[in-house]
Amino acid sequence: MKLVKNIQDKFQGIIQASRRYPLTVVFLLALAVLNAYLIQQETDTYPSYVYSLLVGIFLSAVAQQIYERFFEKNSQRILLMFGAIILTIVYYFTVGSAADYDLERTIKTGIIFFILTIAFIWVPTIKNEITFNESYLSAFKAFFTTVLFTLVLYAGIGFILLAINQLLFSVNYKVNLHAVNLVLSLFAPIFFLSYTPLYLSKKDESSLTPKELTAKLKQLKSDVSVPKMLELLISYIIIPLTTIFTVILLIYLLQNITGEFWINNLLEPILVSYSITVIVVYVLASNIETKSAILFRKIFPKVLIPIVLFQTIASVLRIQETGLTYGRYYVIMFGLFATIAGVLFSILPIRKNGWVAVVLMILSLISIVPPIDAFTISRVSQTNLLESTLEQNQMLEGNSIVPNAAIPKEDKIKISQMVYYLISMDYNEEIEWLAPYNQLLSYQFEEVFGFQPIYDENGFLNEQSVQDSYYASLDLEDSPVISIEEYDKMLIFSYYDSSIQPRIEVEVDNEGYTVYTEEIDGKESLILSDESDESDESDESIMSIDLQATMEEVASTSETENMLTINEATVKTENEEAEMTIVFTSINIYDSQYDAEFYLFIDIK
Fold first, then answer.
1. Cys-Cys link to 390, which of 86, 343, 395, 585 (CB 3.0-4.6 A)?
2. Is residue 475 part of a domain?
3. Is the separation of the CB atoms in 353 and 341 below 8 Å?
4. Residues 146 and 271 both lie in one domain
């Protein structure tokens, strides 16, 4: 009976949440209908409508929080709902009107979601007995409870559909997609809202007696209290682990304070991740009174400040080398926020942590409002740096780019990086002297600038990684014919350092042979064996080639940059039993990882 009652209470909570946030539910229903239509039509051509409805969902939820905290009349509630609708329409016609996927719009929309989420948590705590720490904890618990229930519900639906499909009749795959849509678009958000406490509202303050207010506040304190399991997790696992990592990080910083430390590619993500962890743990620990939590609140804000300053300085130094991208803009902006947060945590009582939320929302808003937003500033920075680099190398005359292959490699890297960034953000069409080369930039880069772009599989390189990297491909236009008349077999081989290579069986004169790779003395070797059966213990190696040494040999002897002639790409190895010739079509060496594609010619003597 208790289980039935709990289920009834939860369904009642979902119904009450729907009444409490009616406009939010309307937006959620519209989103579910739109998603159902997109699933049926098998299209994703309406991202602007999806984004706009999501913004409406967040805005309407915040509008309800504002109403409950500051207003009493239904007319005021209707005006706030109307305001949320107007702002949603404004979003559609300003940020969200593009028909296709747009990275800038997506990031700006994500920042808007983030701002509204923080506002949703912060608004009920304004001039209230309930603190931001408690409201954050309530949202934290609601989120993970929602995730758990959502996973269980979807798993149950999935098993039911699987059983029907296997035992009764075939179920169209779209049914599963529609189930996911209903769970994520309707159930999960409404379920989350049902866990949002009814904080002390303006109506409560004017209509409840002091005794009733005290009773409601007591109930609220119970609703936003820390579960015992979470208290133990934070106090005795998360805080000690954070402390150990902090000690390791401080030792690393002190040992490597000079040299390339400031431009180490790993530094930014490590310090940013650390800072986020400390801030989140601090806010959660603000609701706990164990000894470890109290010590954490006293010490870690002061430790956070110098570490964040390290991160910010490192990011600023990187700007001088690569210019400002939107990613680095946000890294620096976060560094500024974390520094302010560390100071506020150090000087203000914990019940005033809401000011940190205010700072975070203001800085986030600044990052998406022109002309000081991340994208405008990064576009100007990258454009100016590219222009100055071209001018320094006499590659820009008026609005025309002059190809020049004789410039320093560092400048080639910079040009490759900046052009790649401007293309990826669709900014090249807005630059007067770059727009005429629009199509050529992606497909005929060398024709425009006089050299091949310098890059690896993850994108363009920086000056620190270029010394440890190499990329080149076979110039098939210069060497379109490869003779195979001297060989018995030709194989097309792809070698990737991080993956298992398949064994290839070949037959020559009715004899079986196997070609495979194997690690020998810490290096990968290409092996030709005289037996095709893997399980045969009589397998004997006829020939072995050190692939990594061979790739390094080609990289060190090639005279052309990024392009290999047939002679440069060919490596021949032979003994009394066989001859193997490798003709590389591409070589990629980066950060001690070796990847290659090549033709392998085999001649059995």
1. 395
2. no
3. no
4. no
